[in-house]
Design brief:
Length: 197
């Protein structure tokens, strides 16, 4: 028997439920941000496995359409991230190198800047590969109306009876539903009592 609060990946929702006939879509009311926020949050929880697969498919599609640019962009971002990490980690040694070897430092700076400008198209393609799937997921989560099953399964996540990877991710980035904590605690206690029987 599963423990209360244990992380369980959500099942894949059918294509009919996710996009086709039974799916109902509506443009959100942009004046009611709280309701729109709730719809996005609940859909992210309910369709999380479909969204992970959507992200992977769109990312791979961009990678297949522009493989060289994607590879160069990935390498450029990785090198820039590595240099930033090294320079921030070893500030004293970087400062002393800059002071002791100013000509090499300036030449390196121009070399890195030139490489970034040369690879700007590749970096843009890499960023498109990362951000386009997020945009697609956000648009779907914003427009997909919730059904009864969505509401029931999300209540299990909300009470802590069932935890999911998306729920943990949303908690980590600080996006939690504002709920009455006393109600949540009492529901968790009832759930533990039920699981222990």
């Amino acid at each position: 028997m599963a423990e209360v609060g244990e992380i369980h990946p959500a099942s894949i929702r059918s294509l009919d439920d996710f996009l086709l006939e039974s799916a109902r879509f509506q443009i959100p009311n942009f004046k009611d941000i709280e309701k729109w926020n709730n719809r996005v949050y609940q859909n992210l929880l309910y369709y999380q496995t479909n969204y992970f697969l959507t992200y992977l498919v769109v990312f791979l599609l961009v990678s297949l359409l522009h493989p060289t640019k994607m590879l160069c962009g990935t390498m450029a971002v990785a090198v820039a991230g590595g240099l930033f990490y090294l320079l921030t980690k070893n500030q004293e040694s970087a400062h002393s190198f800059k002071k002791n070897h100013p000509l090499i430092f300036v030449a390196s700076l121009f070399g890195v800047a030139g490489m970034v400008v040369y690879l700007m198209g590749s970096i843009a393609t890499f960023l498109l590969g990362i951000l386009l799937p997020i945009l697609v997921i956000f648009v779907h989560a914003s427009m997909r109306l919730r059904n009864l099953r969505n509401k029931v399964l999300n209540k299990l996540e909300w009470t802590g009876l069932r935890r999911s990877p998306m729920g943990v991710l949303l908690e980590t980035i600080g996006w939690e539903q504002e709920i009455n904590m006393e109600v949540k605690r009492s529901m968790e206690e009832r759930a533990r009592d039920l699981w222990s029987k």
